[in-house]
Amino acid sequence: MRGGPSVLGIVLAGGEGKRLMPLTADRAKPAVPFGGTYRLVDFVLSNLVNADIMRICVLTQYKSHSLNRHITTTWRMSNLLGNYVTPVPAQQRLGPRWFLGSADAIYQSLNLVHDEHPDYIVVFGADHVYRMDARQMLQQHIEGGAGATVAGIRIPRVEAPSFGIITPASDGVRVERFLEKPADPPGLPDDPERVYASMGNYVFTTKVLLDALDRDADDDRSVHDMGGSILPMLTEAGQVQVYDFDQNHVPGETERDHGYWRDVGTLDAYYEAHTDLISIHPVFNLYNREWPIYTHTLQLPPAKFVAGGIAGESMVAPGCIISGQVTQSVLSPGVIIEEGAVVQGSILHDNVRIGRGAVVRRAVLDKNIVVPPGATVGVNPGRDKELYHVSANGIVALGKGQRVL
C-alpha cells in the first residue's frame, strides 16, 4: 500500500472443485467462467487490486493451464512500479511432493515472502463471488494488534452445518474457537440467531504466520490447512480476531448488494449466483464502476439480434448472434441462437451454438457445445439424468465440448 505498510497478497487457487463437475473436468475451479465474461479468480484479484494491494502471488496446482493463461494474459501490472500478479505453480521446492493443503502450499512457497519482506500477508481464496475492500480488514488487524484476522460473514444459525463457524469471545472480536460444520453452535453475542461463517479470507502479521507454518510443517498429525490447522493453532494461542464482513463498505455499493458473498462450490450455488445478476435491481451488481471487476476482453463485435431474435431479463456478451428467444439467461461471447430456438433460465459459455428449433431450459452448457436442431436439454428430466449430469435442484450441466444427443 503506497505510503503505508508493506503488504503481500497470496491467493489460494489450487482447488479441484469436485462438486462443480463437469465444469471443473478440464480446469481448476478458479478458472471456471462466470457472469458471461469473467473467471471466478477475477473477483478476488479485482478486490485486492482495487484495495491497492498490487503485489499478488496466485498459488495454483490442479489442472492449472487455463488459469495460468488467463492470469498471465489478463493481469498485467506496472513493472515500472514493481507491481505484479503472478501465478505460482507447485514446484516441489521442499522435496518430491505436491501441496498437502493450503497451509503447505504457502509453506512450500515461502521464497515469495522472503523475497518481498512484507509487514503483513493477505491470504484470500480464489473461488467466491463478492466485493470487499481488504484495506478496511487490514486496518482493523493493525489497530487490534492481532497476529491473525479472519473475515466472517453473518449467516442464520440453522445454516451452520454447511460452513466452518467462528465463535467469538464476549467482546465480539477475539476468536475463541473454530467449529467445523457444527450442528448447534452458539449464536453471536449481539445476535443469538446468527453465527459467523469463515469466508476463507485472512490477514496475518508476517512473523506470526511464518512461525505458525514452521510449527505446522513439523506436525505429522496436521492436515496442513489454513482454516483447519493454522487458524485453530493461533486461536488457541489467543492471537486471532474476527472481522465482520458486514462492516465492509466499497464505493458505489447499493443497499441491495451490500455484504453480498457467494460460495459457488456446487453446481446449484453456481447457477443461483448467476440468477443474482440478471434482475432489474440485481442482488449482485456487476455495473458498479467505482469498484470494477476486471477481466480480459475479447476483440469481438457487439451482440446482434436478427430474424426476430429477442432476449429478456438476460445478459448477452459481445459476439453473440440471437435469432431465437432467450429469457433469464447469461450468454458468454460468441454464443449463437438460431431461429426458432428457445433458451430459458440457462448459462451458456463461450461459442455455444443452439440449433434451429432446439429448446434449452435450466441448463449450464460449457464451451463449444452444439445443441443440434430440434434437440432438447432440460426438458425431459428422466432422459437428461440418463445422458447428462443433473444437480440436486435439477440443473442440467454439460462439460466442455460434450456431445448433445
Secondary structure blueprint with pairings:
Blueprint: E1 7-12, E2 33-34, E3 38-39, H1 41-50, E4 55-60, H2 65-74, E5 84-89, H3 102-107, H4 110-116, E6 120-125, E7 128-130, H5 134-144, E8 148-156, E9 164-168, E10 175-180, E11 194-205, H6 206-217, H7 226-236, E12 240-244, E13 261-263, H8 267-275, E14 304-305, E15 310-312, E16 315-316, E17 321-322, E18 325-327, E19 330-331, E20 336-337, E21 342-344, E22 347-348, E23 353-354, E24 359-361, E25 363-365, E26 370-371, E27 376-377, H9 381-387, E28 389-390, E29 396-398
Parallel strand pairs: 1-4, 1-6, 4-5, 8-12, 14-17, 15-18, 16-19, 17-20, 18-21, 19-22, 20-23, 21-24, 22-25, 23-26, 24-27, 25-29
Antiparallel strand pairs: 2-3, 6-11, 7-13, 8-11, 9-10, 9-11, 28-29
In words, what does this structure look like?
Strand 2 (33-34) and strand 3 (38-39) form a beta hairpin. Helix 6 (206-217) packs across helix 7 (226-236). This protein folds into 2 domains: 7-268, Spore Coat Polysaccharide Biosynthesis Protein SpsA, Chain A; 298-398, Hexapeptide repeat proteins (UDP N-Acetylglucosamine Acyltransferase, domain 1). By secondary structure, it is α/β, with parallel strands linked by helices. The mean pLDDT is 91. Helices cover 20% and strands 27% of the residues. The longest helix has 12 residues, at 206-217. The protein is globular and about 65 Å long.
